[in-house]
Amino acid sequence: MERIEVKEIKQVELENPVLVEGLPGIGHVGKLVAEHMIDELGAEKIAEVYSSHFPPQVIVLANGLVRMVRSEFYAVKGEKQDLLILVGDHQSATNEGHYELTDAYLDIAKRHNVRRIYTLGGYGLGQLVEKPAVLGAVNNEALIEEMKQYGVLFKENEPGGGIVGASGLLLGLGGLAGIDAICLMGETSGYLVDPKSAQAVLSILCKALSIDINMQALEERAKDMEKIVARLREMEQTGMHEVASEEDLRYIR
Amino acid sequence: MERIEVKEIKQVELENPVLVEGLPGIGHVGKLVAEHMIDELGAEKIAEVYSSHFPPQVIVLANGLVRMVRSEFYAVKGEKQDLLILVGDHQSATNEGHYELTDAYLDIAKRHNVRRIYTLGGYGLGQLVEKPAVLGAVNNEALIEEMKQYGVLFKENEPGGGIVGASGLLLGLGGLAGIDAICLMGETSGYLVDPKSAQAVLSILCKALSIDINMQALEERAKDMEKIVARLREMEQTGMHEVASEEDLRYIR
Amino acid sequence: MERIEVKEIKQVELENPVLVEGLPGIGHVGKLVAEHMIDELGAEKIAEVYSSHFPPQVIVLANGLVRMVRSEFYAVKGEKQDLLILVGDHQSATNEGHYELTDAYLDIAKRHNVRRIYTLGGYGLGQLVEKPAVLGAVNNEALIEEMKQYGVLFKENEPGGGIVGASGLLLGLGGLAGIDAICLMGETSGYLVDPKSAQAVLSILCKALSIDINMQALEERAKDMEKIVARLREMEQTGMHEVASEEDLRYIR
Amino acid sequence: MERIEVKEIKQVELENPVLVEGLPGIGHVGKLVAEHMIDELGAEKIAEVYSSHFPPQVIVLANGLVRMVRSEFYAVKGEKQDLLILVGDHQSATNEGHYELTDAYLDIAKRHNVRRIYTLGGYGLGQLVEKPAVLGAVNNEALIEEMKQYGVLFKENEPGGGIVGASGLLLGLGGLAGIDAICLMGETSGYLVDPKSAQAVLSILCKALSIDINMQALEERAKDMEKIVARLREMEQTGMHEVASEEDLRYIR
Questions:
Q1: What is the DSSP letter of A39?
Q2: Sorting pLDDT into bands at 50, 70 and 90, what band is D251?
């Protein structure tokens, strides 16, 4: 296996699509929004991305079937504009992997002549939020006014810690490649999968894309996702990672 | 030394063998079963795998002789089917190494026309288990019914944290290569080398392979293995790793 | 993206310039001095250095615009001598990256025929310092007497832990390349951005370069920088790194 | 800079020399013995090994002069046999680096037709030892009887955690290259630079090499080394690593 392998699933002709990225992150806000969009819009999977930069494990599905950790691109043709949607199981597990994977994502975007990128995420506040606002960051100053019209907040130097992972690097590396990109971050406690925050982000994204998406299923989807995440957290605490734990290696590192 | 080096020890002609993997992991269940099978079946070593992805150390044997950390392939010809058995000292110490080593293991499997893979491990519960069940995961849905007949349990989305290391990736990468693979996980506390869990796994594996293996020595073998593991744990806690500790480096990382 | 990419911003002809390095470190002393010099001397940016060895994130600027993490070279022509000034957002996030990035910095230095390097940093004492002294280290014994004339202290084997990162390696690798280099370290508590320590370092550097730099803005600049650093620290403690946190990966590593 | 660079300092003709390795480790026993031998025997430096696998820093010498972290080979011609002595500042800071550096050390050994290797280290007991014994490990069973004659102890499966770093890999990789190698480990508390343990190891090594080395300076040399190590430890605890700390990166990793 190469360090990154892209497997094309289906050939599609898209017209200057917009790319929406929703990989795992704080409150799983981006992932929740992107997966909801895929379902509601009936998007089709067009490519899978495998990489040795992902955690060295497989995912166990509901029926006991496993599959490799991967990212996936979905496509949907729309009235106003076509969409590419990027989701996945994990971010890179290595430092350089974040750069290399984002490069690979951008290569796919360029091949489809993507004209704009929205990356989605949560903005962790460490406490419950009644009415989550949506913060923005852009890689082209000209986008700020447009985003403000949709209700996006811009706070000076926020997030102060920068934007980590693919959601950040798609803006940075995308900018170097001449593609406009916006990061939308829904305020969230950061502790749970947050459907309220996801709804806030999705509302703004719908305005920006001039589309309409039913949000009813969002809360239930969040509950399902929370169950999975809770199990991960529990295992993290007990150190009981099934099967090949690194137990034997810990004393070396 | 290359990043991975395979040293052939003995040439054998096997007929579509089944590969059984038992590398170190939770409760050392897989390793215990695989080493027991090698002894009881009189399997012969056919290859050694060396890699700079393994921990940078040597193993000290009973007589004071040392050898490199490595994985080993054993072969045994059977009435019903031939077997390849993969055991080893350690899993990869690096993220990418898990992928590269599993690729190397699969290359050897393909060279021998392996038609099916069983990976063995423990499923850590964090508490003592009276009658350990054996959970399964597969890379081909068609295998589930067959496995259920042998008494394998399939629980929805379990293990929720996925299957880490070679036991998982052999299913994932094996599936991409078109090789059927099953992971058998014996329930275990996760704290000790667990002969009860190993016996549960081995019983099912024997049914699946239509072979008969005496299990009497399993308990004693577990005691021996526990002594070694206990010593490792102790050293881990005191930080007394003999000879070249990373003492000088700790303040940098 | 290559592992290191240098983007030339402006072509300049410099005459055997002196290179001053002020990348992030203890008390942000070096960074504070170097950024102050750029402003007060009106230095122009001539190159940007991007690298997958930097942390995988983007920086969010005051107006919500993001940019890639990077290092920057500034140039200014002077009466006494020309200056190259190296500043940046982060040091390398990987072990090898420190070596590779310093190599890249030295390549740029050599292309401009740099004849001497000053690297700037803080010397952490763990407690408040009323009158911070400036410690020195050199890669050529002949430099010690000259530095003592400017008030630089040389203490036997200090810093005992060596000099970590680009500030150290520019002396080490610079020496192998035949370029004289001096590290100036201002005593500091290590807890806050320290304008007193920066002033002490800058005073000595001005003497060494025979230039005059107004220090009035130094204290205010330190306050601004402290706000940013405090925000980083806070996020570090709460674990609330906006957007793509490594939350999902923590249980693996 | 390449990942490993060997700089030849002096050409020497040695006749099937014995290589003695004393890189940093538990109780700094190996390093203490090897540096003592270099001084007492008047060995000459013949090569320096630089590597981006070493910690990314420079060493500050007594007079404020810095130099790159490195390993060094010394040579001395003897009546009974010629010696090559390997010492250095640090072990590898990366997993693969241990393998790559040991390969490089072995390349130099092979170029000089080294016929035997002694690697030296401490065996940490976690408590004070009145009369330290010297444990042995070998890569060729035929060596055990000879070593016992010099007073080396062989304990079953000890050290149970294996031998980590160059002291172990020189035996493992050396064995694959057909070079006999012995690891001598002096019992030590593991907390301090231990001249008693060093004396025990050196006594046995002198017998094995049929040479005579004055041990008077050993205690004083240990005191000097302890001062340096104590300073490292102190800094490790306060987190005050001078100059370019990784402070800014910690919140990412």
A1: H
A2: very low
**Per-residue model confidence (pLDDT) at position C130:** 87
Residues of chain C in contact with residue B161, where contact means CB-CB under 8 angstroms, are 251
Distance of CA C20 to the CA centre of its chain: 8
Q: Hey, which chains touch C, using 3+ CB pairs under 8 Å?
A: A, B, D
**D110 vs D191, residue with greater confidence:** D110
Residue C160 touches chain D, beta carbons under 8 Å: yes
pLDDT at D26 over 70: yes
One of 2.60.40.1500, 3.40.50.1000, 3.40.50.10900, 2.115.10.20 is the CATH number of C4-238, namely: 3.40.50.10900
Domain positions in chain D are 4-238
For the segment B69-106, what is each residue's pLDDT rounded down to a tens digit? 999 999 999 988 999 999 999 999 999 999 999 999 99
Can you tell me the mean pLDDT for C133-149? 97
Give pLDDT, residue D238. Answer: 54
- Supply φ then ψ for residue B214, to 5 degrees: -65, 130
DSSP-based three-state secondary structure for C19: strand
D164 chain-A contacts, CB cut-off 8 A:
252
Measure CB to CB from residue D124 to each of B66, B240, B246 and give the nearest one. B240
3-state secondary structure chain D: CCCEEEEECCCCCCCCCEEEECCCCHHHHHHHHHHHHHHHHCCEEEEEEEECCCCCEEEECCCCEEEECCEEEEEECCCCCCEEEEEECCCCCCHHHHHHHHHHHHHHHHHCCCCEEEEEEEEECCCCCCCCCEEEEECCCCHHHHHHHCCCECCCCCCCCCEECHHHHHHHHHHHCCCEEEEEEEEECCCCCCHHHHHHHHHHHHHHHCCCCCCCHHHHHHHHHHHHHHHHHHHHHHCCCCECCCCCCCCCC
Q: Which chains have 3+ CB pairs within 8 A of A?
A: B, C, D
D207-243 residue pLDDT tens:
999 999 999 889 888 888 888 777 777 665 554 444 4
Helix (H) or strand (E) holding C198: helix C195-209
To the question of domain A4-233 being in CATH 1.20.140.20, the answer is: no
**Bridge partner residues of D76 (DSSP):** D83
Is the CATH number of domain B4-237 3.20.20.140? no
Question: How many beta-carbon pairs under 8 angstroms link C with D?
Answer: 186
Q: In what order do the strands lie in the sheet with B66-68?
A: B66-68, B57-60, D163-164
Interface size B-D, in CB pairs within 8 Å, comes to 183
Is residue B253 scored above 50 in pLDDT? no
Residues D191 and D6 sit within 8 Å (Cβ to Cβ):
no
Classify residue A220 by burial, with Cβ atoms within 10 Å: 0-12, 13-18, 19+: exposed
Length of chain A in terms of residues written: 253
Here the ipTM equals 0.90
Is the CB of residue B138 less than 8 Å from the CB of residue B150? Answer: no
Whether residue B232 contacts residue A248, with contact meaning beta carbons closer than 8 Å, is answered with yes
Residue D234: per-residue pLDDT: 67
CA of B24, closest CA in chain A: separation in Å? 6
The pLDDT of residue C253 is above 50: no
DSSP strand pairing (D180-188 vs D134-138): antiparallel
Distance (Å, whole) CA D196 – CA D212: 17
Contact A238/A57 with Cβ under 8 angstroms? no
pLDDT of residue A105: 98
Number of Cβ within 10 Å of residue C79's Cβ equals 7
Show the tokens assigned to B206: 């024997």
pLDDT at residue A241 is higher than 60: no
Pick left, alpha or beta for residue B168 (phi over 0 → left; psi -120 to 50 → alpha; otherwise beta): alpha
Q: Which of B24, B98, B140 sits opposite A248 (nearest CB)?
A: B24
Query: What is the distance between the alpha carbons of residues D225 and D195, in angstroms, rounded to a whole number?
Result: 10
pTM above 0.90, yes or no: yes
C51 has which bridge partners? C4
Q: Tell me the CB-side half-sphere exposure of residue A19, using CA atoms within 13 A.
A: 31
